[in-house]
TrEMBL record:
It comes from Parasponia andersonii. SMART domains: TPK_B1_binding (SM00983). It comes from the Eukaryota. Its EC number is 2.7.6.2. Belongs to the thiamine pyrophosphokinase family. InterPro entries: Thi_PPkinase, Thiamin_pyrophosphokinase_euk, Thiamin_PyroPKinase_B1-bd, TPK_B1-bd_sf, TPK_catalytic, TPK_catalytic_sf. It is an enzyme of class 2 (transferase). Transmembrane segments: none annotated. Keywords: ATP-binding, Cytoplasm, Kinase, Nucleotide-binding, Transferase. The lineage of its organism: Eukaryota, Viridiplantae, Streptophyta, Embryophyta, Tracheophyta. This is Thiamine pyrophosphokinase. The keyword Nucleotide-binding applies. It is found in: Cytoplasm, Cytosol. The keyword Transcription regulation does not apply.
C-alpha cells in the first residue's frame, strides 16, 4: 500500500522564489468568522473561491487584518476568482463590488440539495483538467466553530469527495480525511500546530487502526461512536503514522500566533 504524506506547510509563510511546494492549493472562503491567518492561505492559493456569503466575510473581515491600509485598497487586492453558491446570503453591494472587479459569478440557486461548499469543491474539481496528477489541495477557511449543521455538512464534503485532498480550517484547528486506500505519514509543523490531536471514525465503526508517534497510540484498535473515539490525544513525535481499514478523520490544534 502506498504512503500519502501530509504537512501543514500552508500555515507557514510563503517563501518568495523559494522551492516550489509539492501541492497546488485552492482556497474556499466560507460564511463564518475567518481565521487570522486567512491572508496567508490566500497567498498560498492559486485559485480562490468564495462560497455565497463567504464573499461578505472577505469583504468585511480582510480590511481589519490590515489596519494601516484603506479598506478599499485591501478589497481591491483580495479579489476572488469565483463566487459560487445559491446566492441567498451574499449582500447586493458585495455582489456588485466583486462583479465590477471581474470575479466570475456562478449562481446555482436551482440546487437546494447540496451545500455551497459542495458546489465550490465540484467547481474546483471540474476546473482542474488533470485532477489526478495535479496534486491539488483545497483549503477551506471558516469551516468550523459555528453552526453544528454547517460543520457536519462541511465534514460530509470530506466524505463525498474522499479522493480529493481537502483541509477544513478554523482559527483553532484543522481537519482532514485519511483515506483507507493509503498508509499515512503526517509531518507535524510544531511551530504552528499541535500538540492536541484526534482520530475520529465517520459514519460507521472504523475497523482496525494502528498509529505511531502519539501519546496514546492505537494498535489494531476499532473506534466507534458509543465506544472508543481518540479525542484529546497528543502528538509525541515529529512524524505520525496512521494505517486504518476505514476512512477516518485527523484533527490537530492550531497554535495561537
Ligand atoms: N456557522 C457556520 N459554521 C460552519 N460553516 C458555515 C457556517 N455558516 C456557513 N458555513 C459554510 O459556508 C457556506 C456558505 O454559507 P451561507 O451562509 O452562504 O450558506 P447558506 O446555504 O445560505 O446557509 P443557510 O443554511 O443559513 O441558508 C455554507 O455552505 C457552509 O459550508
Ligand atoms: C433532506 C434535506 N434536508 C435539508 C435540505 C436543505 N438543504 C440542503 S443543502 C441546501 C442548500 C444550502 O445552500 C439546502 C437548502 C435538503 N435539500 N434536503
Amino acid at each position: 500500500m502506498e504512503f500519502m504524506t501530509h504537512s501543514s506547510t500552508f500555515l507557514l509563510p510563503t517563501i518568495p522564489d523559494g522551492h516550489r511546494p509539492s501541492l497546488t492549493y485552492a482556497l474556499v472562503v466560507l460564511n463564518q468568522r475567518l481565521p487570522t491567518f486567512a491572508p496567508l492561505l490566500w497567498e498560498h492559493a492559486k485559485l480562490r473561491l468564495c462560497a455565497d456569503g463567504g464573499a461578505n466575510r472577505l469583504y468585511d473581515e480582510f480590511p481589519p487584518f490590515f489596519p494601516h491600509e484603506h479598506a478599499s485598497d485591501v478589497r481591491n487586492r483580495y479579489k476572488p476568482d469565483v463566487i459560487k453558491g445559491d446566492m441567498d446570503s451574499i449582500r447586493t453591494e458585495v455582489l456588485d463590488f466583486y462583479t465590477s472587479m471581474g470575479t466570475k459569478i456562478v449562481d446555482e440557486s436551482h440546487d437546494q440539495d447540496t451545500t455551497d461548499l459542495h458546489k465550490c469543491v465540484a467547481y474546483i474539481r471540474d476546473f482542474m483538467p488533470n485532477l489526478a496528477n495535479s496534486n491539488l489541495c483545497i483549503l477551506v477557511a471558516g469551516a468550523l466553530g459555528g453552526r453544528f449543521d454547517h460543520e457536519m455538512g462541511n465534514i460530509n464534503v470530506l466524505c463525498r469527495f474522499s479522493t480529493i485532498r481537502i483541509v477544513l480550517l478554523s482559527e483553532d484547528c484543522l481537519i482532514h480525511l485519511l483515506p483507507k486506500t493509503h498508509q499515512h505519514e503526517i509531518h507535524i509543523q510544531s511551530s504552528v500546530e499541535g500538540p492536541h490531536c484526534g482520530l475520529i471514525p465517520i459514519g460507521m465503526p472504523s475497523g482496525k487502526t494502528t498509529t505511531s508517534g502519539l501519546e496514546w497510540d492505537l494498535n489494531e484498535t476499532e473506534m466507534r461512536f458509543g465506544g472508543l473515539v481518540s479525542t484529546s490525544n497528543l502528538v509525541k513525535e515529529e512524524k505520525i503514522t496512521v494505517r486504518s481499514v476505514s476512512d477516518i478523520l485527523w484533527t490537530i490544534s492550531i497554535k495561537k500566533l
